[in-house]
Specification:
Elements lengths: L17 E5 L6 H9 L3 E6 L1 H16 L4 E6 L5 H14 L3 E6 L1 H14 L3 E5 L11 E4 L5 E4 L5 E5 H6 L2 H28 L5 H24 L3 H18 L8 H12 L6 H16 L3 H11 L12 H14 L14 H10 L4
Parallel strand pairs: 1-8, 2-3, 2-4, 4-5, 5-8
Antiparallel strand pairs: 6-7
Helix pairs in contact: 1-2, 3-4, 6-7, 6-8, 6-10, 7-8, 7-11, 9-10, 9-12, 10-11, 12-13
């Protein structure tokens, strides 16, 4: 006789409908938008620098398919600025919104899209983290963390634009990818300890994105980073989060460490850089090969020590101690470490982070 089992909770997957990656293809952006949504008007959220460089090409491509446009400045990413952008987009009567630029512009578009109930497009100009294809937005508050908004309807990438960005940004993207190795291990631990949902498919997809960097790092050290491979890996990682319905496959203790640093030492280091450094220490806690992770980061040109991004010893120690408090509901290796200042110092010293 078959036992009656508890009904599985509903699991929602919101995925990008179309992803386009090309070289020198910014002139095709208008056709991409038209194919996806056939809007009458689009709001373009971007920083002034990005608008100056790409503005004419974007406008010409939209004009070619008879789509009106309105530019909105990303600004400082504050709540006040986001509210202002949302109000202007609503006044513009736009059918769709696009975030063109780095994480701040894409995050602004996600939030505006989510709050106004209109679709958004992700047009990254740098490959510094996996947020370009995920539904998650970084929140700056007393307890910095990520919240779920909405996944992009489409992702449009011009590799030539990515290549022109500082190589440091691409190396940071590698750090965010390597963090998946820690995040998945933490997710497995959380499933074991609390019974939370664990999705093997999304976990494997996130790990594959990380392993591509790990396996090719020696070649990257000799020949330079492969922008296309890294951008595809970052998009795959973002899709893994979409499939999981949470940031679990790409965000574990190493991200909590990064978020803690956002509060303790704001403006110091890029997101992927801090996640990479956090991954070295968390790998040791998890019993993984932290030296291999450190070597990979060094190969791709990402920092492996706090000093390289201007962090002080005390800031690293404080971040390790306070990290788990940012999201106490999320089970990570830090839950089992009972991190104290002394333990944090020993960990950071042992892994040569400080």
């Amino acid at each position: 006789m078959v036992q009656k089992m508890d009904r599985m909770k509903s699991h929602t997957m919101e995925l990008p409908r179309l992803i386009v990656i090309g070289e020198g293809n910014m002139s095709e952006f208008g056709e991409f938008v038209h194919t996806l949504n056939r809007p009458k008007k689009i709001s373009l959220i971007a920083g002034m620098h990005v608008k100056k460089i790409l503005g004419r090409r974007v406008e010409k491509s939209l004009k070619g398919v008879s789509i009106e446009h309105a530019w909105q400045a990303t600004g400082d990413g504050s709540v006040e600025t986001l509210c202002s952008i949302k109000r202007k987009v609503k006044e513009d009567g736009s059918d769709i919104v696009a975030g063109i630029g780095g994480g701040r512009s894409v995050d602004a578009a996600k939030m505006v899209s989510y709050e106004l109930g209109i679709p958004f497009l992700s047009v990254p100009t740098a490959a510094s983290h996996d947020g370009m294809a995920s539904p998650f937005v970084s929140v700056k508050s007393d307890k910095p963390h990520s919240i779920v908004a909405t996944a992009p309807l489409g992702v449009f990438v011009d590799i030539d634009v990515i290549k022109k960005a500082p190589v440091r940004l691409l190396a940071s993207g590698c750090g965010d990818l390597i963090a998946n190795i820690i995040a998945v291990k933490d997710w497995q631990l959380g499933h074991k300890r609390t019974g939370e949902y664990y999705g093997r498919y999304s976990a494997d997809l996130a790990l594959m994105s990380a392993k591509i960097v790990m396996e090719n790092s020696a070649r990257y050290a000799r020949e330079g980073l492969d922008a296309r491979v890294i951008i595809e890996a970052l998009i795959s990682a973002g899709v893994a989060s979409c499939i999981a319905g949470s940031s679990r496959p790409c965000s574990g203790a190493e991200h909590l460490f990064s978020h803690a640093l956002d509060k303790i030492a704001p403006g110091m280091g890029l997101h992927g850089e801090k996640c990479g450094i956090g991954s070295i220490m968390m790998a040791k806690l998890q019993g993984q090969d932290w030296k291999k992770i450190a070597k990979t980061l060094k190969d791709v040109g990402a920092p492996t020590s706090a000093k390289q991004i201007g962090l002080k010893r005390d800031e690293v120690i404080e971040a390790l101690v306070t990290a788990q408090d940012l999201r106490p509901e999320r089970y990570t290796i830090l839950k089992e470490s009972e991190m104290t200042a002394r333990k944090a110092a020993r960990l950071a010293d042992a892994t040569r982070v400080i």
